[in-house]
Amino acid sequence: MNPKRLLGIAMIVFAAAVTLIGFGIGPDGSSLKTQSAAAEGMGTLLDFALIGDTRYTTEQQQKFLNLITDMNKYDLAFIVHDGDIKAGSNACSDNIYTETRDLFNQFAAPLIYSPGDNEWTDCHRAGGNSLERLDFVRKVFFPNNMSMGQKKMALEQQERYPENARWTYGGVTFATLHIVGSNNNIGRTPEHDNEYVQRNIANLNWMTQTFDIAKANGSIGVMLIMQANMWDNTPPSELIGFGDTLRQMERDVLDFGRPVVLVNGDSHYYRVDKPLMGSKSMRRIENFTRVETFGTDDVHWLRVTIDPKDPQVFMFRQQIVEANRVKH
């Protein structure tokens, strides 16, 4: 074919492509604006990470450094830590919190943190003042509305409870809820019960507002992150601190109707399951999935991919840190 004719055809094809892009039409015929909203920052797929429950021992402190090195090899949108930065029986000294904050800032990606019970509720076990430690946790980890990590990300925060954060990414609405193990800090002293009552009200409001925002924005899914495992093997009489949350979560999840993932740590056993039951049907609620992150003694991480084309939205992959493998 004549080279000039080839050049002319190429110019026509290029002009057509530019025209399509100008009108916001993607290569698959969908709106570029829709694609961008569905998977902001990562094309059609978006990867982020989940960690928690580690640095309990001297061995794990070194393994946590290995974890940082491994995770920094990946292009992650953000990382969420679902609580417990030390063992519950360890002393709650100031340096534990400041050292952990500094380590969080070594992650390349933005890091969002939700406190666990070991950071404050359980501090009485080592002679500390739990409520004073809670104030210190907020001072160290939540001085402003920015994430930790080398790359910062702005977060929406709840008034008076800055640890409750919210953000939208990849077409999904995310929120942390300050709900912790040890029965959510209820049942030990009147002072602690009062703390629970106030924080419980705030958490319930934050959760429902999150679903309202998700519906208003047309989010393809919701992910909630907390520390407590509300379905562990503890007798129900010792889990009264979670009753309100479970009842409201059922209502909000059913009303939303799209995929909802709850991330928790607490019991140190990686799992993906469906423990939320309908109170009327007594059957599993299909659009709800619980993910529990790796925890002591396993210092690894969970990689999550958002796929807007997948009806389930979320894909979960174990990321085993080679340097942290156990020598069997």
Question: How does the major sheet shape up?
Answer: 7 strands, mixed
Q: Which ranges are low-confidence, i.e. pLDDT below 50, for 5 or more consecutive residues?
A: 1-43
CATH class of the largest domain, anyone? Alpha Beta
Q: For this structure, what is the CATH homologous superfamily of the largest domain?
A: Metallo-dependent phosphatases
Total beta strand runs:
12
Detailed description of the structure:
The chain has helices at 3-22, 32-38, 58-71, 94-104, 130-141, 190-217, 243-256, and strands at 46-51, 79-81, 111-113, 156-158, 161-169, 172-176, 221-225, 260-264, 271-273, 288-292, 301-306, 314-319. The protein has 328 residues and is α/β, with parallel strands linked by helices. It folds into two domains: 1-30; 42-324, Purple Acid Phosphatase, chain A, domain 2 (4-Layer Sandwich). The protein has a seven-stranded mixed sheet, covered by helices on one side. The chain has a five-stranded mixed sheet with strand order 3-2-1-11-12, with no helix packed on it. The protein is globular. Mean pLDDT is 88; it is low at 1-43.
Describe the secondary-structure layout.
Elements: H1 3-22, H2 32-38, E1 46-51, H3 58-71, E2 79-81, H4 94-104, E3 111-113, H5 130-141, E4 156-158, E5 161-169, E6 172-176, H6 190-217, E7 221-225, H7 243-256, E8 260-264, E9 271-273, E10 288-292, E11 301-306, E12 314-319
Parallel strand pairs: 1-2, 2-3, 6-7, 7-8, 8-10
Antiparallel strand pairs: 1-11, 4-5, 5-6, 9-10, 11-12
